[in-house]
Amino acid sequence: MRHYGSIDLMAIVFTFGCVPLMFLPSLPLETSWLVLAGVFIVIILVWSIRRHYYLCVIAVFILSFLWSTANAKQYLSLIEPYIDQTLVVTAKVETINTQIYSPKKNNPYYAKFSILKISDQILSSPIPIIIYWQQSDLIKAGQIWQLTIKTKVTQSYLNEGSFDKQRFAIANHTLLKAKVIKSVLLEKKFNIRQSIADKCLAYINLFSYRGILLALGFGDRSQISDHNRLTMMQTGVAHLMAISGMHILLVFYISCFLLKGLLFFFPQRYSHLLLPILIGWLTTLCYTWLTGFNPPALRAILALSIWIYLRYKNNHISAWQKINRIIALLLILDPLMILSESFWMSCYAVVSLIFLFEWLPLASTLKNKKRWYFIRLLHLQFGLTLLLLPIQLFIFHGISVVALLTNLIAIPIVSLITFPAILLALLFSLMDCFYLALWLWFVAQTSLEWLFYCLEYLNILWLNIPADFYLFSSIGWLSIIIIRIEFWRSFSFSIIIVITILFSPIYKQPDYLWRMDMLDVGHGLAIVIHNGKSAILYDTGAKWENSSAAEQVIIPFLQWHNLNVEGIIISHSHNDHIGGLSYLRQRYPDAWLMSSSSSLSNDYNCLADHKFHWQHLRFNVLWPTKLVSDPNNGDSCVIQITDGQFSVLLTGDLERKQEYDLVVKYKRNLHSTILQTPHHGSTTSSSYSFLNYVNPFNSLTSTSRYNPWRLPSNKITNRYKALNINYYVTGKEGQISLFFYTSSWQQKTMRQDINPRWYHDWFGSLSFYE
């Protein structure tokens, strides 16, 4: 019988010891950390004397927890002194420049550097930093620059359903960011990776799918078009266009296959069983280096190395044991990896594969013969589609109905044509075999044209799944387990209960009467008023060069809560308030529109004294008194929403003169429980008389941390404090949610209440807007 001190048990315990790092609201203080370290030492001493294996398990768990939190604290302590500072640094370029010859080469872009010196003081270890490069000078990997930079920290929009940029940045050690004030090139020479990229770019830039060719060749996904990204995600093939374990294994197997073919022409004495494996591993390591050792590729090469070592040692252990030990080793090397969604996706996919082939294997007659290849591929893809549902919903918040079919098409094309062609094209580009290299790049391009033609045709149905239904995604795992152990024969009633629980979100009713969420959209405004089923939007956030707050924040939030938009209210025509309107109207064509603009196709005009009811709420329009073609701040659509007991006053970017007009007209009727701070906390608004008449309990301000207007103004925040009005800012709190009940109301913020995590902290020590 296996004893409790086995390697596999210790590996599992170590992995679970790192898991709390994902959920801790704050990292342990030094005293708490030292106490835990002391407990660990005592347990080790007791264990060594008495040999109680359960104490060893506890000790390993504590050690793992201490190791993961210590790594997190060490990384933060390394960068925190330099956040929100102006520094003169000597830094080395780490990322290869693929913008050369690009149509967008003059556009600013982000590049990864390593800081070697700060003010001529050599650092004990380089500090990774992401720099926004907008200089005219061309940077290349390996160059050394002296830079005057203004640093900041990666600040995520914190909302339910949105991508967590802060967590991603910490997982990849890229929390520190900066923009360049002045740059001086110290060492012009660039490294071998950049030289290889320069040779290949001469070919790659000839083709329309250059972004995907760069992604598969060098791990650079920055130049994939937004359209192609969306198509790949909605058809379920995005995983094929990002360097992962599958690509690393393909490099390994292609290298081994080519070497075995080459050795066929050599005398037998030159052949050795491990030679193809060793050369294949070295080739794979070179490819991983070429991609910049990006985290998924690095994880894959480490896993491959462990597999080769175990095979060399002839260790006969199960696939479960291998993946268990590999995960533990990866977390020993970098515990922050556990915060990475790609880490969980990789591990989850491998676990799903092992589970599928052990719990639902094909009949032996179908496993080997070539004529059953399609059946084997269908079994693999169908099984993975079911088993990967939970992680796919967690990351993408939806599923592609056509993913099974598109993967059956895409996997053979990418693995048998596109990727091998790219690998050979890289090789022949280096060898300056012009025509052969060009032909291979052309083959890769043509295969992608075929693939995307099919994907565009099949991209017909993407289902967005609300958070309440995520539990239902485990139905694939449950089905396989129930079928394999024949659980249905004796426990059919239990199965019915489990299925009922999975479907329970359909009947779930919110415990609040209504709810209002001020979303964290940066500098802009987007408010959602809803009852758990239907919603009205007040403003739609800003539109940026390549995206908008509607796409990145509002739509994910609506999908997370399964809300249907019935109406949209636009306060005025500035981009930070109306930017997402066109996108939202495409997504919700039946939603009515209200605004104070005569140039928009309004269903209802926003004019003073207009009243309407929605659900059990009353909407009172207070301002403006007339429509204009292009409403500015003073023409903002001001609405008071009330349920008869509690009320919210939405003001857009209303300014001081209009505030006085409202005070004269409405006086005490302005009183509201909650106030949306006019004009993002600017000094042009929030007059004393207006605040005295509104007399809110809480005031909510929507603006970003690093906004150029330095909002909210210190003068205004001090004014609210002097009037004993609680003041909250989305840039600091994240999403601000208000829940209204029959006789009470409650406020929760994303950073403090809804999802408090240590990696959501307000890093840096300077004032809000600096």
Strand order of the largest sheet: 13-12-11-10-9-8-21-22
Q: Please tell me how large the radius of gyration is.
A: 29 Å
Contiguous uncertain segments of 5+ residues: none
Mean pLDDT: 87
Name the structural class.
alpha/beta
Q: Counting H and I runs of at least 4 residues, what is the number of helices?
A: 28
Helix content: 40-55%
Structure summary, number of beta strands: 22
How would a textbook summarize the main sheet?
8 strands, mixed
Strand content: 15-25%
Shape: globular
What report would you give on this structure?
There is one protein chain. By secondary structure, the protein is an alpha/beta fold. The protein has 28 helices and 22 strands. The longest helix is centred in the middle third of the chain and has 28 residues, at 403-430.
Helices, strands, pairings?
Blueprint: H1 7-18, H2 30-50, H3 53-79, E1 86-93, E2 109-118, E3 121-133, E4 144-153, H4 165-171, E5 176-187, H5 192-204, H6 210-218, H7 226-234, H8 245-263, H9 274-290, H10 295-312, H11 319-333, H12 341-359, H13 364-367, H14 373-387, H15 389-396, E6 398-400, H16 403-430, H17 434-458, E7 462-464, H18 475-484, H19 487-490, H20 492-502, E8 514-518, E9 527-530, E10 534-538, H21 549-560, E11 564-570, H22 575-578, H23 581-587, E12 592-595, E13 604-605, E14 611-614, E15 617-623, E16 638-642, E17 647-650, H24 656-666, E18 674-676, H25 688-694, E19 698-701, H26 714-722, E20 726-729, H27 730-733, E21 736-740, E22 745-749, H28 750-754
Parallel strand pairs: 3-5, 10-11, 11-12, 12-13, 17-18, 18-19, 19-20
Antiparallel strand pairs: 1-2, 1-4, 2-3, 4-5, 6-7, 8-9, 8-21, 9-10, 14-15, 15-16, 16-17, 21-22
